[in-house]
Amino acid sequence: MPLPTAILSVSSSSLSFFPLFSYSFSNKPLFGFYSSPTLNPTRPYPNHSIRKLMTTSAVSIQKETIISERPHTFLRETDGQDDGSVRSRFQRMIMDVQESVCGALEALDGAGKFKEDAWTRPGGGGGISRVLQNGAVFEKAGVNISVVYGVMPPEAYRAAKASATDEKLGPVPFFAAGISSVLHPKNPFAPTLHFNYRYFETDAPKDAPGAPRQWWFGGGTDLTPAYIFEEDVKHFHSMQKSACDKFDPSFYPRFKKWCDDYFYIKHRGERRGLGGIFFDDLNDYDQEMLLSFATECANSVVPAYIPIVEKRKDTPFNESNKAWQQLRRGRYVEFNLVYDRGTTFGLKTGGRIESILVSLPLSARWEYDHKPEEGTEEWKLLDACINPKEWI
What we know:
Layout: H1 46-55, E1 65-67, H2 86-109, E2 115-120, E3 125-133, E4 138-152, H3 154-160, E5 172-185, E6 192-202, E7 214-224, H4 230-245, H5 251-262, E8 264-265, E9 270-271, E10 276-282, H6 287-299, H7 301-312, H8 319-338, H9 341-348, H10 353-356, H11 377-386
Antiparallel strand pairs: 1-2, 2-3, 3-4, 4-5, 5-6, 6-7, 7-10, 8-9
Subunit structure: Homodimer.
GO molecular function, one term: coproporphyrinogen oxidase activity
Pathway: Porphyrin-containing compound metabolism; protoporphyrin-IX biosynthesis; protoporphyrinogen-IX from coproporphyrinogen-III (O2 route): step 1/1
């Protein structure tokens, strides 16, 4: 779970993901287009097969070109751009959310300003990468959007469309767009936040006119504190539940568990943080409803997170508190480098390193055989990461 590098003839989900980086089908920012089928046992998702196939196929990445001014749109003219399509509206949504989140973060920080890089690539698409570093409140904050066009191998398309098994198909074009962000405050009592929301489509193969288009939504927002303030965690989870309940009361419990399961550091036997919501491959609901749902979730980030940091940013802390924060950041690094498929895919395929690793904190810490004393505030956080709790 980071800014675009680009991918073209892909055969792999790291599609531009910040972990939005720009690769092509990943798992988290764009974001993370990978997820384990065991995470959501309610139904099998053929898209998991696509991603598995794509990880073993040849991948061709085209480097992005930095441009001096951001364009009005990253959509190709053939997409109609501002024609009211799902592609167009999702792109507008992630651009608006990037503006609102960055504006809220700069206002809260008071000193730091986001550096912006806009980029495009020959195969179509592009993105806007924004990073704030060494601010008064935030040590590092990245908020990135990406719009990616690419091509998946025919065997991946067959995996998603059973009726195409015996068809002779050529490469299948795909489209992906998303926003991804990781925010690392300086104060140990202010939590780290990650969120990403994405939309993915495959076009009908050129040699299979009329073939149905495959599409899905994915994303989530999760909280990673070093210390537990129950009122903060309850506020955060209440905001996630509120966003979910507007669309389906089953969403929050389902996606909360999915989040707990996904951000699991297997070699540690603990979660990265205190969870939130996470979902992928959503396409078994009305498309308009899911677009509205993703928009609601993305727009809930500021009210869910900013009040918490506002409350904790000036809390007095000592060297021991800072050391514990850095140890927890070490867990964040371990998850991203070992388990986040967007990150590992980008590293293996030569993606833009600054984009791939932008989610990592400026500083982290590892101590040999560190174990917090039972009953301490540090132990309480670790216990909650080992044994996920119902916060609301």
